[in-house]
Amino acid sequence: MARNIGKERDITKALNAADEWKHRCLVGDGSVFSDELLWTSDNFAQLKVAFVDNPDEGKRSFYEKLEDQLAGYSPQVIKVAAEAIWVLLLFHSGIGAETKRRNFLRVWDWSDAAPPIEDRALEDAALIGVGNPGTAYTTQMWREFEFFIALIISFKQLGPEKRQEKLADPWVFEEWQSSVSGYASRQFVHMLNFWCFPDSFERITTASHKRLIAKVYGSFSEPEVEALSLVQLDQMLLEIRQRLETERQIEDFDFYMPDIRSEWAPEPTQKSTKKNTTIL
What we know:
disordered C terminus; globular
C-alpha cells in the first residue's frame, strides 16, 4: 500500500490528521483546530478577495504579504487561512515540524484567538512529512495557495452529498479536480490525492517522476505515456505498484527505495533532485 514508506518513517499520525481534516473540513464545513465552522464557502470567498484578487508583487516574504492581505478580515477568515497553510505544509518532509507549527501559529495569531498548541494535529508525529516536493514548492507557495483556494471554493459548491460522492472513488475525485484552473501544474494536486486516498496514490508530487516510472515499468510506448492524463497515469502507477509488490515480494514497497529508484532514475542530477520529490 502507498501508505507504507519504510520502517524508519511512521506516517500513521500524519495520515490520521489528514483524514480528520478531510471529513471535518473538506466534506464538512468545520475546522481542524476549533469547534467553529471555518471551512465555509463564504470564508473562502472572502479569502479569495483578500489573497487572489489582491495580489502583492513586492519582494517581501509570503507571510509578510499575507498578513497585510488579511488585515481587516474576520477572525474566522484568518483562522481558515492558517488551517489552509497547515494543510499545504503537512506533506513536506523537507520542512521540520517546528517550522510548520511556527508558520501555522504565526497566521493563526493574527486572529487574536488563543493558539491551539496542544492539538494532536500539531504534534511532531503528525507533522513528520511524507515527501520533499523541493524548494520551488515553498518559494512559489503563493501559487499553491491560490490554487488551493480555487479548489476549495469549487468543491464547496457541490454541497455535502456531492462531496461525499466525489470522495467515494479516487478516480472520480481526481477527474473532478481536473476541472479546476491550474490543476495540471500544481504539486498540491498530488498531495491531496495521496492524503485522501493513500492506498491508491503514490507520495509523488510531480507528473514527470510518475511518467518516468510508467515508461520503465509500463507496457506503453514513450509517446503513449506522455499522452496519458494524470488520472490514467495514476491508475497505471497503482497497477505497477501492485505488480512489483507481488513480483519483488518487498515489504513496505516504495518507488523511492534506493534499489527501485535506481531503476527508473538511474542517474539523478542535483538539479532534478532539488525540483522533484525525494525520499526523506
